[in-house]
Amino acid sequence: MLAPRQHHKRTIPRTKMASLADDHVHSAGRMQAYSDAIFSIVATIMILPVAHTEIPEDKNLREVIFYRLLPKILIYILTFFVVAISWTAHVWLFQIVRRADDVTTLLNLFIMMIITFLPFTFTLMGTFPEYVLAIVLFSVCIIVLGVAQALVVLHVFRNPQIMEESIKNSENKVAVRNALLLRVLVNPILCTLAAVFSPASNVISYIFLVMILFSPNIAVQLSKLISKCSGSVQVSQEVIRRGKSYEMEVNKERVECYSDGVFAIVATLIILDICEKDIPSVADLEIKYKNDLAAALNHDSSVFLAYFGTFATVGLLWYIHHSLYHHLKRTSRLMAMFNNFSLAMIGGMPLAFQLTSMYKDTDFYNNERVAIQLSCVIIFLASISQLAIFVTALFRPDQDLTDSARVGGRSHYYLLVKLLVYPTVSMTIYVISLTSDVLSVEAFHVAQLGTPVLFFILWLIVIQIQRNVQDVLNPEENSTQEGSNNEEQALLTAPPENIAC
Amino acid sequence: MLAPRQHHKRTIPRTKMASLADDHVHSAGRMQAYSDAIFSIVATIMILPVAHTEIPEDKNLREVIFYRLLPKILIYILTFFVVAISWTAHVWLFQIVRRADDVTTLLNLFIMMIITFLPFTFTLMGTFPEYVLAIVLFSVCIIVLGVAQALVVLHVFRNPQIMEESIKNSENKVAVRNALLLRVLVNPILCTLAAVFSPASNVISYIFLVMILFSPNIAVQLSKLISKCSGSVQVSQEVIRRGKSYEMEVNKERVECYSDGVFAIVATLIILDICEKDIPSVADLEIKYKNDLAAALNHDSSVFLAYFGTFATVGLLWYIHHSLYHHLKRTSRLMAMFNNFSLAMIGGMPLAFQLTSMYKDTDFYNNERVAIQLSCVIIFLASISQLAIFVTALFRPDQDLTDSARVGGRSHYYLLVKLLVYPTVSMTIYVISLTSDVLSVEAFHVAQLGTPVLFFILWLIVIQIQRNVQDVLNPEENSTQEGSNNEEQALLTAPPENIAC
Q1: Which of A274, B159, B231, B245 is the one with CA 20 to 30 A from B406?
Q2: Nearest to A327 by CA among A268, A263, A260, A407
Q3: Widest Cα–Cα separation across chain A
Q4: Which stretches are tagged as biased composition: Polar residues (chains A, B) (predicted)?
């Protein structure tokens, strides 16, 4: 009965076979992009519980920050890093997947579900650190996560057609698979121990949980140990090298994707609050404002100024991030850490928005200035860690930077100026707010709105210089690429002062 | 003074020139991805004001839905479409940009700022349709948007090195530019008229605002008219054709990017509510629950079940969308419209989550069942419009579909089954909820969690059949691509019943 079908199938030409492969095995690109989006949003969205903390206007904001906000902020930053780390692991794991079939996609969706739930269990643990249940819940999340990832590894190695070429063709596939499995299962093991010991002593279980941060190294050491015992040194070396290279080089495009997600969600979280709170209800308009919509909106005017100011800052920090990563060749783990910290701070912008927009008419204890100062600190930390990425890259220019961004390179100074703008501006405002009382929230937001204009003027100067020199040079070459580039270079080798002023 | 520098520059080899071009002119890819993310999040995040509407547990939910939720839901859907339309225009406009320089990037950021603010002005207009100020504010937004887009067009045409090749090399550049400018400035003109007439009569200004939906066609007609007057018919034809083709074919990858954004934000908005509301405060735990964390969490247990159920649904709808778009070659305007509607419905999932998770112990007026029914309607509409995309594509298979997805194609039936699962499931649950009282919210969420298992079983059957037939066929060919594909085909040409059961 099967014979004829068999025969029929045998006659299918190879070209058709190839197209057949595409029917159910899709390129993994979209799955990864989707995961990046979820990871970044989950990491950032945790700022809202902080931003939505009830702050009575008549309390001293400095005290509120220290006693009520700070613990929450710390939990937010920790959560952000937990998510960022699991994202790195996810990227690293899915580097073995060249094309995603249905099982991989469904498993990935399951992993996403756990990841999205992770912040809850982590926040719970952060709020009630002494409770066994909290520790156990978080551990269970990590264990399930690890098991799901292990299933992905097993599935991929059972279906070579969806596997990354480099691994598919490596002669010691099994060793690679075991190394991957080990890496993926270290966290579950640590969490199992943490969960088991939590009734006895929280301290021990937290020690195990902290060890998760070093799980990559632990995995490498373990696989080294195992291969020593089994004696197959050469293989283990290969595996460890691969393992390391996986760790170190999180694909640059993926980092950009992840960062874009954070910037995008931050930009939109701000407007969300406005749409929820600042659209007056029909009843309010009738009773409070006697149907005068202008008056109703005018009452929240400071909010809109705050919105445009904050958006401008977030947008420009993205723009700087964009220019910076355009000149990076790769991201080391240290640079990734700086990037994550910068993103975590940018995630704090909704909080800055909340605080700077809530103090309008009445002002006790100089709360207005405290709010401005906190915003300045957030912006400063976000921008300075972007600068730190560039500085780190400068230590290994050959590996990390494009030619033009290196010292003496064409865009070196221009990029440096861009990276220096926000640290300088935020620092200046902070100092002013310390010394004088003139600085109001409105002034702060106007300053925020002014900064992009600064960038724009900077660019206009660039253009103008180009045009002038160009005309002097050779009018017929106008608006051709070589022409404009010559001048670009003439300009960019000039010291930053000339550009900035 | 310039001479030596000039001389110096002339000696730069052409290879360096090329690299110079890359210094400040980046590939437009990342800017577009960032914009897609913002657009999709802005469109979706507007559901939260709806989802966060205060609903007293002791009121009749059916009445609450009709008198309090429905108007908000309508505004949400309209906002979603307004944002989606401006996104289409944005994609269409930026097709002329091959690579983004700093000015384009900054202008794009400014456009993003207006886009993010658009929902506020629109919601304001939706809440107070009779107020002149509301109409004027919305109009001003659109006008500023149009002007910014016009600036992008002018900038790009002044800097050919960042322009798309096809336009750069077309002999009637000027005509194309004018057509683009016309297209971009139609909306501002309409809005100016709307704003001007709003004091006289709202009706007239709303007529003008509705015309925005047809602005592409208006632009085409106008450019036709103008070119008629100027007599250059041939050019106008070329321009119109291009204009049309721009409209019709919004790049498939961009649609996927945009959709991913919506799915991702929806998936994470759900957990946000849990993290904000369902982590008990230290005080509550002490007083209410006598430091019994388990009891505190158990009190919200239904919320967690609701979360996992909703996430499973959103995730799988993404997975179906993913499989569907993998088999689409292009998206016509009609398909884009269906996709937008599907996404708008998926954006409604947080509302479904809210309603199905709020009714636990007490239940008045069968509110529990009403909540389930609303969720079913949302899921049904979301999934049926995905099916509608596929059906639309089937009308022009040669243009729209890959070979394997067409009627009689290898994955035609399998894809159809995938697309039919959710309409069937949601419909069934809805009918059950009408007939019997047994259906509880818990049962509904368990059903939601069951659906992915259904998909998984389906896939396992596929694999199993493959394996079996394969073994019979030729054992040595196991786990090689041709082998598995033969069977894939054998299976996929089988009727859907065989696969589904």
Answers
A1: B245
A2: A407
A3: 92
A4: 476-488
Residue A323's alpha-carbon distances to A340, A386, A405, B25, in angstroms, are 17, 11, 10, 10
Any B CB within 8 A of A293 CB: yes
Scan residues 90-149 of B and list those with Cβ closer than 8 Å to A.
Answer: 102-103, 105-106, 109-110, 112-113, 116-117, 119-120, 123-124, 127-128, 131, 133-134
Q: Does A210 touch chain B (CB under 8 A)?
A: no
* A267 contacts in chain B (CB < 8 Å): 38, 112, 116
Q: How far apart are CA A338 and CA A379, in angstroms?
A: 14
Whether A307 and B117 lie within 8 Å, measured CB to CB: yes
CB contact under 8 A, B484 and A113: no
Strand partners, A328: A401
Using the beta-carbon criterion (under 8 Å), do A271 and B6 form an inter-chain contact? no
Contact assessment for residue A384 and residue A362, using Cβ atoms and an 8 Å cutoff: no
The nearest CA of chain A is from the CA of B345 a distance in Å of: 19
Residue whose pair of structure tokens reads 């210094």 in the numeric block: B23
Matching residue, tokens 């809440």: B127
> Distances from the Cα of B310 to the Cαs of B313, B441, B442, in angstroms?
5, 12, 12
Residue A279 DSSP label: S
Instruction: Tell me, yes or no, if A473 comes closer than 8 A to chain B by beta carbon.
Output: yes
Question: Mutate which of B275, B310, B415, B493 to disrupt the A interface (most A C-beta within 10 Å)?
Answer: B275
Residue from B2, B10, B41 whose CB has the most chain A CBs within 10 Å, to mutate:
B41
- The string of pLDDT tens digits covering residues B437-449 is 777 888 888 888 8
Tallying the residues shown for chain A, one arrives at: 501
CA distances to A135, B281, B300, B304 from B293, rounded to whole Å, are: 12, 11, 11, 15
Distance from C-alpha of A284 to C-alpha of A142, rounded to nearest angstrom: 48
- Separation of alpha carbons B482 and B478, rounded Å: 9
Contacts of B127 in chain A (CB under 8 A): 279, 282
Separation in Å, CA of A196 to nearest CA in chain B: 18
* Chain-chain contact of A322 with B285 (C-beta, under 8 angstroms): no
A24 touches chain B (CB under 8 A): yes
Residue in A99, A95, A243 with CA at minimum distance from that of residue A160:
A99
pLDDT digits (tens, 9 = 90+) for A158-177: 888 888 777 777 777 787 78
Nearest by CB to B17, from A158, A282, A482: name it: A482
Taking only the tens of pLDDT, chain A with its 501 residues reads 333 333 333 333 333 333 333 445 667 778 888 888 889 888 888 888 888 887 777 778 788 888 888 888 888 888 888 888 888 888 888 888 888 888 888 899 999 999 988 888 888 888 888 888 989 999 999 999 999 999 999 998 888 888 877 777 777 778 778 888 888 888 899 999 999 998 888 888 888 888 887 777 788 788 778 777 776 544 444 444 454 444 445 678 888 888 988 999 898 888 887 877 777 777 778 888 888 888 888 877 888 888 999 999 999 999 999 989 988 888 887 888 899 999 999 999 999 998 888 776 556 667 888 888 999 999 999 999 999 999 999 998 888 888 878 887 777 888 888 899 899 999 999 998 888 777 788 888 888 888 888 887 777 776 676 667 666 665 554 444 443 444 444 444 333 333 322
Using the Cβ of B24 and the Cβ atoms of chain A, whether some distance falls under 8 Å is answered with yes
Asked if this assembly's ipTM is beyond 0.85, the reply is no
For the stretch B365-372, contacts whose Cβ atoms lie closer than 8 Å and that sit 24 or more positions apart, written own/partner, are B365/B59, B365/B60, B365/B61, B365/B62, B366/B437, B367/B57, B367/B60, B367/B61, B368/B440, B368/B441, B369/B433, B369/B437, B369/B439, B370/B61, B370/B62, B370/B65, B371/B61, B371/B441, B372/B429, B372/B433, B372/B439, B372/B441, B372/B444
Gap between the Cα atoms of A371 and A368, Å rounded = 5
Q: What does the alpha-carbon distance between residue A186 and residue A196 come to, in Å, rounded to a whole number?
A: 15
